Inverse folding.
């Protein structure tokens, strides 16, 4: 049977994407895990594994860095989601979040994937049974958040989440599924909510952003992820992408902007743009003091989390003109 041309082209795209991305991930898996912290980094010794945090239907590890001092009233909780071929503490350390949390006295939650769940150590954001409220990995992360809020006495209204790549896609999914839990999030080299169902589609959308939907159709995918009776605000979002990303198509950042500006009532507007550093642009939607959506674009950044002045460069973490960790913390108003 001869398949229609569109299906043949989609199959060719999927196979090409699978080959190129598998090569990139395979190379890093063959080496020491990209996110593994170096011997001189002491943050690993501060990490505690918590096993009794809930039913854990997604079979994830819960790793936390307790605050360096007793949590002050109103202290936040930050959740950090690693990318493929990374380890939770290694990525959080390299990205500078362990240092930043230590300096500012708040706990850090670092969920970690197990290779038995995903051989490339990726969160399964593309599987409906794991990216949906009340199910799989999404529920495991939610249970970790609840356990951390109780354990450390942080402000449940100040829970934030950030991720890179697969962790970024999972971050977006968590923000959509649990808008009543997260105040804001940050998606670094990620993809929009609902862009893929299954691994093959995920690889296609990593290579070629899509599908071709209107902003309102994208926004509907976010709203459909939340409880049907939810009438509250959705989390604010900081979106980051490098123009030289050869793993996740940078056009996914545009789709994320379309999706979340529509969610926040700014669909179809241009926002306002500044250039904080050479080759770096920042565009915001909403008030200057507290934007609902922001987009950071870096001309010379590959598929990596950008650091500057904090953190350690590694396979998927790169020096850049702007520190994502510091900028995201300002966006979240972490003090």
């Amino acid at each position: 049977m001869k398949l229609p041309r569109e299906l043949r082209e989609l199959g060719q795209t999927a196979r090409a994407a699978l080959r190129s991305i598998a090569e990139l991930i395979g190379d890093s898996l063959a080496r020491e895990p990209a996110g593994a912290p170096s011997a001189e980094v002491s943050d690993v010794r501060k990490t505690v594994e918590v096993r009794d945090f809930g039913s854990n239907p997604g079979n994830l590890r819960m790793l936390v860095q307790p605050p360096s001092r007793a949590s002050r009233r109103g202290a936040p909780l930050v959740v950090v989601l690693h990318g493929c071929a990374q380890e939770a503490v290694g990525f959080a350390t390299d990205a500078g979040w362990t240092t930043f949390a230590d300096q500012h006295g708040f706990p850090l939650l670092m969920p970690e994937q197990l290779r038995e769940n995903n051989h490339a150590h990726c969160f399964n954001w593309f599987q409906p049974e794991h990216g949906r409220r009340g199910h799989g990995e999404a529920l495991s992360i939610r249970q970790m958040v609840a356990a951390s809020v109780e354990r450390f006495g942080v402000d449940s209204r100040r829970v934030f989440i950030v991720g890179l790549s697969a962790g970024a896609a999972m971050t977006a999914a968590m923000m959509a599924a649990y808008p009543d839990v997260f105040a804001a999030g940050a998606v670094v080299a990620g993809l929009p909510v609902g862009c893929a169902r299954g691994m093959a589609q995920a690889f296609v959308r990593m290579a070629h952003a899509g599908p071709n939907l209107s902003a309102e159709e994208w926004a509907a995918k976010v709203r459909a992820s939340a409880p049907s009776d939810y009438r509250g605000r959705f989390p604010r979002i900081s979106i980051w992408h490098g123009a030289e990303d050869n793993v996740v198509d940078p056009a996914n950042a545009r789709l994320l902007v379309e999706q979340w500006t529509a969610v926040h009532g700014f669909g179809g507007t241009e926002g306002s743009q500044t250039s904080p550093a050479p080759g770096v642009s920042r565009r915001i939607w909403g008030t200057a003091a507290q934007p609902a959506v922001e987009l950071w674009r870096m001309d010379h950044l590959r598929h990596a989390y950008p650091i500057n002045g904090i953190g350690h460069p590694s396979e998927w973490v790169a020096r850049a003109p702007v520190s994502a960790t510091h900028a995201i913390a300002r966006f979240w108003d972490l003090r």
